[in-house]
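Re: weekly structure request thread

Next one in the queue (552 aa):
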Amino acid sequence: MLKLEVVEGSNFIPFTFLQEINKETCLRSSNGSLIPALNIFTFALEFFKTHALQELSDLSGTRMLNEDIRWVITVPAIWRAQAKQFMRQAAYKAGIASEDCPTQLLIALEPEAASVCCRKLRMHQMVPDPRSSPLPLMVPRRATSQPKNLDHALPDIKEDPNTKASESVSLSGFPQTKESDLTKGTRYMVVDCGGGTVDITVHEIQDNRGRLRELYKATGGPYGSVGVDIEFENLLCGIFGTDFIQHFQQKRPAGWDDLMIAFESRKRSACPDKPNSLNVSLPFSFIDLYKKSKGGQVESAVRKYGDPNIRWSSQGMLRLAPEAMRRLFLPTLNRIKQTIGDIMNNPDARGLSYLFLVGGFAESRILQSEIRKEFGHIVRVIIPQGVSLAILEGAVLFGWDPSVVNIRRSRLTYGIGVLNRFDPTKHPEEKKLSKNGVDWCTDVFECFVKINQEVSLGDTVLRSYTPARPGQRSTIINIFCSERPDVRFVTDDGVRRCGTLCLDLTDSQYQPMPNRREIQTRMFFGDTEIKVTALDVATGKFVRAGIDFLSK
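Done, posted below.
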């Protein structure tokens, strides 16, 4: 069994782990062995690839090959570039696509995939709001037609008059006819609540083809359902002592897994409208180890804790009243609501009509109730049936048409460090460098794109670079990033080196010329990943180029 523990870190959670991951990152297993994180992700993706190919082969009656598939891997939108590149490298090692055929693999952002799926919703595919009159979701027994309520969840969607109701796009199948026309200008928010993170994006329908424009950069954080698990663990530490809980986790890892699985079941079934207490079964190994370690009974520890909403039952259950369960959700819920509210107050995200709630954590009735209660008077809250599958089905649609989101917002400010002529009116004296009688300013930040700046698919940042000496076989340029839009120098607070632009200059056909060699690079920031191409101006040939976000 593996523990997600970074060797050089502490107090680790998966979100921060993937934000700072690199090629050398290792995980420590429960037996103390160090295993490269890249290998772990590779094994998992390889298993999924093999299973998917086998299932497709069985269903189609013919052997499906890896080359027959366009693969789509979904990641949180708030992941940084190195985490996305890490997933791509793990996929390559697992045999999903390759560096020679990178377009066979698409990295899709989870809230974008959900957005693509949700904009096609019909009323019968929504979770009804218990505060309103119920929707006719069931088909009458004798009826052979479609469910009654086939109206689009978005009233701005117009049906093609040549499309039959039975041919309409639905969440359960593939589109067989012309895509429905969407009215330009509809704005909505997608809140993707998963196990580890919450991702929030804001989109506007840009044209009648349904193209989407991102209005505000992807936002969120580690506010997923694991936060509820952490609060439950803190509760157990308060009742039985932190030292015992840690001892139990180390000595009885299987028992700890059983305990958390039991809590997961109760967490999913918790409902704000039901007064019944929820029973969490404590495994025998927990009760037995507590008795041996503490010399007392579990029941006594619960009674001593003194919370009337938490009791012990004679059947060996920890009984949590609805108020006790709600307290476990509260810190996570508050962070989610605060983040949503902050985005709604941003001028770029004004005029929203809908809020789509998706992801595995969105199955929680408590979360659904809190979001509707907090924001239902501002926007219409829409929750799809099978809410946890919205990202999966949207990813399939994204794989058919990756250009569906054609305007995004940059998550960070990106640029490089350059030398500029020294200007005493705007450059500090400590940055001054004199060379061959000319004064230069060092560490000047040359911006490629600013945080929250709109970037369209196909938009390029064009720069030209010249090797420092003839015959140079490669050029490496450091790339810096920041969460600030007003960066002046690469040494400013909050600026860090995030990657390197690598240009391979080993073209054997290149002959030295009187003029210095010029390499023209084009960088693309409008896709889900940052990409680069390079051209040797002298030869007219493309130069092998790439951006490495994983090397230290």
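The chain has four domains: 2-96, 113-129+148-161+168-222+335-408, 226-327, 411-548. Residues 113-129+148-161+168-222+335-408 form a domain with the Nucleotidyltransferase; domain 5 fold (CATH 3.30.420.40).
Next request, please.
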